[in-house]
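Side project, low priority. Logging it here so it doesn't get lost.
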Amino acid sequence: MVAFIFGYKIFNDTQSLSGDGDDVKVTITEEMSKSDVASLLKENGLIDSPMIFKIQISLFTSDNYGIIPGEYVLNTSMTHKQMIEAMSGVITKETKEYE
């Protein structure tokens, strides 16, 4: 059952909060690892589980499109995938409104 719940959380792209949420400005530096990025987002109330988010970064990006260092304004109502896409430079129909 624990494995099912863990897998469900990885593949079920959920929002931290419903509604409009709050904008949060974060800075990603070149030195930051996936774990560092996930911890930063947790500290800023954007995600609940750094471990799940770190796995999602690997799943939702490729070697050619990783997290790009820079300043980002993310919203607590964004899904994890929307945050990853915004920070990796991938523009999709979902994330276009946030970029």
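Brief comment: Helices lie at 2-11, 34-43, 50-60, 80-88.
Revisit when time allows.
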